[in-house]
Design brief:
By secondary structure, the chain is α/β, with parallel strands linked by helices. It is 47% helix and 18% strand. It contains 12 helices and 8 strands. α2 packs across α3, α4 packs across α5 and α4 packs antiparallel against α8. The structure holds D-malate. D-malate binds next to loops. The site of D-malate (MLT) has 7 residues, from loops.
């Protein structure tokens, strides 16, 4: 559905009823990334998956920074009357989780950090983002999708799951140039979240595909070592889009974590 918020139109899907779980997609995806988790109907959970600014059916916003996007998300939660949520994000969605935690910690009940990392772009990484913006403007988003699709999934998925590769490639291809351009600014200028890790005081689940080449397992191990009490799960034979590549395992781990968060043992 599409809802009207003070920041403009937002595309979002919701499923189930109960404790709110908000899932943020990566780059350059849209909310359909979370189709398997929405379809799974996690017991006692209301899953909410928005399109981030400019992607899918959401309007772009004026400021392209991770902080502006975090404030946009707070406004979206206000609009759908969600006070405190379990917040999850994949890759770019994870970067946004860190910014949201810094700016709106009282609205976070727990965190799920999937196939993401804490560090910022180095000079070479920033230059690649600028080059990608130029390619998007001159050749279109299809070129970006083509260049990214190989790294977006793991080796096993590339070799055995053409359906998953096709779904993801189509999702990436249909995003607009403006969305891609703005998101690349967000990615390029995001701060280093490494110092944030030790400040996280809510239950945190870290998920990563064993074959993730974009945000490798070592990044997740480093986050797990730095976030007090966090739990790390490595999903075998999955890559960067682990929630699609092995949707059943990802969803099971997510459900178990949510269950443990909302009903800690002994309560
Ligand atoms: C993503 O999947 O969101 C991107 O790979 C993140 C990035 O390029 O840093």
């Amino acid at each position: 559905m599409i809802i009207r918020t003070p920041a403009g139109l937002v595309g979002l899907d919701t499923a189930g009823a109960g404790v709110p779980l908000v899932l943020l997609h990566g780059f350059p995806h849209d909310r359909t990334l979370w189709a398997p988790q929405l379809a799974a109907a996690i017991p006692d959970v209301r899953t909410v998956a928005p399109d981030l600014p400019g992607f899918g059916e959401s309007a772009p916003i004026a400021a392209a920074s991770v902080d502006a996007w975090a404030d946009w998300l707070a406004g979206l939660l206000d609009a759908v009357e969600l006070d405190r949520v379990i917040l999850g994000g994949l890759s770019m969605g994870g970067y946004l989780c860190f910014a949201f935690w810094r700016r709106h910690p009282d609205r976070v009940r727990a965190l799920v950090l999937a196939d993401t990392k804490a560090g910022a772009d180095d000079a070479e990484g920033k230059a690649k983002r600028v080059a990608m913006q130029q390619v998007a403007a001159s050749e279109g988003v299809g070129s970006i999708a083509e260049k990214m699709i190989t790294g977006m999934v793991g080796k096993t998925t590339r070799e055995t799951r053409p359906d998953v590769v096709a779904t993801l490639a189509a999702m990436m291809r249909r995003q607009g140039v403006r969305a891609v351009h703005d998101a690349l600014d967000v990615l390029k200028e995001r701060p280093d979240s490494t110092p944030t890790l030790a400040t996280i005081t809510v239950p945190t689940l870290i998920l990563v595909g064993e074959e993730d080449a974009l945000t490798p397992v070592a990044e997740s191990r480093a986050m797990a070592a730095a976030i007090p009490g966090s739990r790390l799960e490595v999903i075998p034979q999955a890559g960067h889009a682990s929630n699609l590549e092995d949707a059943a395992t990802f969803t099971r781990l997510l459900s178990e974590f949510v269950e443990a968060t909302i009903r800690p043992s002994g309560s």
